[in-house]
User: What shape does this take?
Amino acid sequence: MLIEQEDKVHTELWRISPHMAGLKSSIIREILKFSSQPGVISFAGGLPAPELFPVEEMKEVTTYVLDTFGPTCLQYSVSRGILPLREDLAARAVLRGVATKPDNILICSGAQQAIEVIGRTFIEPGDYILTENPTYVGALQAFNISQARYAPVEMDKEGMIMDQVADMIEKYKPKLVYTITNFQNPTGITMSLKRREQLVDICSKYNIPIVDDNPYGQIRFDGEEVRDIKAIGGDQVISLSTFSKILAPGLRIGWMNGPEDMITIFEKVKQCTDLHTSTFSQYLCSEFIRQGRLDRQIARIKPDYRQKRDTMLQAMRDAFPEGIKWTEPDGGLFLWVELPKHMSAKDLLPKAIELKVAYVYGQPFFPNGEGANTLRLNFSNATLEGIVEGITRLGKLFTENM
Ligand SMILES: Cc1ncc(COP(=O)(O)O)c(C=O)c1O
Assistant: This one.
């Protein structure tokens, strides 16, 4: 009681920035609080499968790193990121056709920090960012810190619709284009090669940087790879990625790959918030790459996630009533569901939670607040039995509320 009163007094009496006082907590993290309760089948978070974390290997690599690098791996380190890891990531980018040197890489505390740093660097209050509609809610949250506004562009199964991109650029003069080209969060859609080329052409013409947030590109389990937009657009593109989905999110290691002069600026912005990313985690990631363990780990998760996706899709075909549509992604962690227009996924969530199933309703992913009838399902985190059971329960719920 006393604490509650004190909270109120502080937030009311101290002159905190009105903008920060108005910040909203991530809806996903709120829903995760319910969904982590025992017995709840969760399709809510973007969590990797916990049973696939390489715990024993992590022990071996930890011992190796401590034995080999000793105090260095426990010390402060440079803001840009330790050289061995930047060398490893540059070499991997080159293999994907992206001309990259270690100085093009800035290691961040997750891709989330990279998004926030880019927002702070480019955006003045009221500036526009062109995004997909819907887009990753965590990016909206990070860009909101800089008081961005949004020019959201509709998607079809090939990604952003390019006619709308050109119109939006003319109308809103966005400072950035933010896209998730591979297995987009939340829809699972992958941008086609043609659209990538068109996006690069348009953005080069208007000289607008493209931020390609790419945590899922390496988790393709079906279909042909599509050329990286960074390989097409070169310095027009800043690409972001992370170890979170391919190794372990708890390490908090992500990175940007961009033009060297911009990386120097981003490095200073990052420095203001955390000096540098965890030295120890960086050494662990670097050794996972150098010892061939990262590629083995990626090879391990792919068949598992494919099986989970297939199980979820089959369960949906069996349990969901007519009139519900969904995406069928070739990789990543999510698929996207559209209920009939008159249904609200937000209103149905408390009922789903009573049935001990959790999902994330779609509205927060829309910068301008549409999408009441949509929801996102994660297929990587639940067990196969949990997927069938959870989807069956959702099927009953949707049928009763059609
Ligand atoms: C598109 C996208 N970008 C960034 C992130 C954040 O990743 P990280 O854990 O590296 O901060 C996520 C996490 O779900 C994501 O889906």
In short: Residues 55-293 form a domain with the Aspartate Aminotransferase; domain 2 fold (CATH 3.40.640.10). The chain has two domains: 16-54+296-400, 55-293. The chain has 15 helices and 14 strands.
